[in-house]
Amino acid sequence: SMPPEILLKIFSYLDALSLLSVGCVNKLFYDLANDNGIWLKIYSSCLQPKRTIWKMKSEQTEAVPLGCAALHDKKPGYWKKEYILKQTAAVKTRLMQLVKPLDPYTGLPFKNKEAMKVSGLSWIIVVKDKNGKEHVIEKANLSFKDTSVTILWYSTNWLCLDVVSTLKLFGVTPLFPGQNKPPNKNGPHRRSLIAEYHLANLTESSVAIGADKLVQLFSLNPGLLLGIWKEKNEIAFVMVSLHYHQLLERSILGSATVQYAPPPNKPVLDDIDPEYGLHGYSLHLDMHGRRCTYLCGTFKNLFCRKGDIANGYLRLTVVSLKDNKKHLPLTGTLGLSWETDVFTGNVKDCYVMTLTLLDEIGKPFWCFSAPVYMELSSKTSGLYDYMGPIYTTDYADSEGKVCVKLVWLEETKEYIIISLVLYVSTKKVNNWYGTTY
């Protein structure tokens, strides 16, 4: 019942975040909260240059009557939109400055944590049932590694697996990061779709990678791990591993409905080098649980001979079975820990593999972070140097495959990597380098 003029006067004392929030109350409030006069003052006061001469001009601009062209010739909400665009551009500029310095070993920005803090980035999952109703799970535990972050969600309000349709992973950023302290989860924000998983036929579309007494683990690309209660057939927890190379772009630059698609690589054809695209690769490999690291290493000068190209793949041998000097021990017993509000556990022989393959100029070429598992291949190795059972770990996606062989040494209670081979898709290489293999 309050006159619009009085409401408009009250709204003129609000900051940008409060204006956006109050505009969600009803249509009248939305129209009043879009007033160009209010937003022009916010725009001028927050974004005016720091130099004194420009400040004087900004004050003159604010003193111009509200009937000027800056107000009446613009549609309602024009200055609100301009303010939001300017603030968003300022944050993106700051982020670009942070992600420019690169780690010489991984080829990735080494200020990822700082960039995520500046952007106010967080992650949520949205579970949709077969009736179309969505359930948002926000509470998450983060675990950071050299080249990836692992996110764990658990809740007491999970749906029964039989009624679950899809699960979507979103990056969430506040519209004005850093202006609302502490962060307000109900404040204005935007979602960026990272991945969508179809769970209607989980046992058929996913890979079972292990179990303990309470839960069974299922894996779906990219990087999703579902823990299912054995007795209830309900979700116990959701774990996602994200590689830093795709992390910020997919979490910020996409929309709520469409995933971010990175621009294609612009190849520079080297006519002088007859084996262009077959050599000069570098690998950074991280094998870890949620909090512990089993192996973290960098391997240089990887190459593929033309005779090793077969079945649509280039073969890059990182650790050879014949060269025991390069065999690698793992630290600790492999396992993937999990937790919920009440229970905790550890699934043996499972871990997260994070791979970063760089091209000859140090640019990330193939990157992923995904849960994997070990499988017993042979009870005895048959090798002269090692006596013990042989285990294998395999990973595959649209860009390549990874094959790892390990031997368990009972005397020293450790695993030794005796073979590590990458198979890179020739289609990926041809698109990247502009070659034909």
TrEMBL record:
CDD domains: F-box_FBXO15. PROSITE patterns: FBOX (PS50181). Residues 1-42 form the F-box domain. GO terms for cellular component: SCF ubiquitin ligase complex. Pfam families: F-box-like (PF12937). This is FBX15 protein. It comes from Scytalopus superciliaris.
